[in-house]
Structures are given as structure tokens and as C-alpha cells.
Amino acid sequence: MLNTLLLMLRSFCFSVGYYLVTIVYALLFIILYPVLPARGRYLFATSWCGFVISWLRLCCGVRFKIEGRENLPDEPIVIIANHQSSWETILLYKLVFPVSPILKKELMNIPFWGWAMRLQKPIAIDRSNPRGAGRSLLVQGVERIKSGNSVIVFPEGTRMQTGNIKRFSRSGAKLAMAAGTDIVPIAHNAGYCWPPRKFIKYPGLITVVVGERRSTKDGDASEITNEIEDWIRRTVAKMV
């Protein structure tokens, strides 16, 4: 009981700092947006990511390590990762630079954070219209890649409980093929420390593994997706 109360208290401290600083960052970003160059906007946004990760470690004892960082190329690429929590979305936005995240259209209506995110021109899709969302992802994704941004795809479509991996959609592979770029898979176990849809954050070490890039010049979308999914499943299993 005492341990649970301590975890709740630490998580509460994290949440207070997280929301207050996010509001301040978002307001400053909106105000400064007209005078900041594109690179400055990304650096400003990634400084918020750095704060969240550091604050989480200070309040909740959540540490992380990254293996295979050298596999991240300098040119635009499609990143495919498993999805367990909000933590990996924050880390990957900082790790892959510059990058365009894919998110649900309604998230851009969230006060402050959503308004600021809207200015960054993410790839916003309507989950209620799967066919339209797929077309939108391809059109916007290719446009972002051609303009110099990498794109992060979570092919499970939702955050999964730790130990569970949902079958991957072919959206990431289709995007990479349409844009004529490669894929870099990323596996992690962030859900152990930041479980999906849970208030309490647990202390521990999150492992992030960046895999070798996979060319999309050979094979089809299904074959490539299966290879990426199999690698992520095997890599995550080793972390358990």
C-alpha cells in the first residue's frame, strides 16, 4: 500500500509539471511561430520533448537506453515502431530530426498542445474513415518526405499493453514505397514504465532498439510489413 501511494505521489508530481510546462511551451511556440525559422521551430519542440523525458526520470525514476542509434540515416526515411505509450512518441520526435508525426485529427483540437502541434503540420488522419485515412497518409506522407522530413508510423494504430503486439497494417511500407525511401524499424518496451491509459508511471529502464534499414526496392508491401513486424516482435520478446 505504501509503495502504491509513493508511486501515485511521484506520478502526480510528474503530471503537474508535465501539464503546466506543456501549456507554457505551447503558448510560447504559438507566439514565437511567426518569427522562428523552420529549424528553430523543431528545436523548440524537441526541447519540450527533452524536458518531459528528464522530468519523468526525476519524478518517477524512468531511465532509458538506445541501441543501434547509428542505424538512423541523415536523409528522410520512414520509421516503423511498436506503440505502447505516449513515451515513445515523445522520444522519437526528439531522436529523429526533422520528423513529421502521424496523429489522430481530433488531437489537434486539444487546447494549447493541439493548437501548437497544428502549426507543425503533422500528418493528421481521420480514423473514422479508414480508406480516406490511408489515402491521406500516402499523400501527406510523400509530401513530407519529399520536403526533407522523416515520418514515424505506428502500424498497430493504437497503444497496446506491454507484451501484446497487434498485427501491423501495411501503411508504413506503402508510404515508403510510394516515396521511394527505406524503412528503419524501432522496437521498445516503454509500456513497462508508462503503461497505456494508466496514471501511475513505474521506475525502470526502457530499452529502445533501432534496427537496420530495410530497402523497399524489392518485395511488396505485405512481405516488407511482415518482415518488420517479425523483427519487432522478436526484439521486444527479448526485452521481457
What's this entry about, in short?
With 240 residues, the protein is an alpha/beta fold. 48% of the residues lie in helices and 15% in strands.
Would you give an account of this structure?
This protein is an alpha/beta fold and 240 residues long. It has a single domain (2-239), classed as Glycerol-3-phosphate (1)-acyltransferase (3-Layer(aba) Sandwich), CATH 3.40.1130. It has seven helices and seven strands. Strands 1-7-6-2-5-3-4 form a seven-stranded mixed sheet, sandwiched between helices. Helix 4 links the parallel strand 3 and strand 4 (123-125). The longest helix has 31 residues, at 2-32. The mean pLDDT is 89.
Topology (elements, then pairings):
Blueprint: H1 2-32, H2 38-60, E1 62-67, E2 78-81, H3 87-95, E3 99-104, H4 113-119, E4 123-125, H5 130-146, E5 150-153, H6 171-179, E6 183-188, E7 204-210, H7 221-239
Parallel strand pairs: 1-7, 2-5, 2-6, 3-4, 3-5
Antiparallel strand pairs: 6-7
Helix pairs in contact: 1-2, 1-4, 2-3, 5-6, 6-7
| Strand composition percent | 15-25%
CATH class: Alpha Beta
- Order of adjacent strands in the largest pleated sheet: 1-7-6-2-5-3-4
CATH architecture: 3-Layer(aba) Sandwich
CATH topology: Glycerol-3-phosphate (1)-acyltransferase
Order of helices and strands: HHEEHEHEHEHEEH
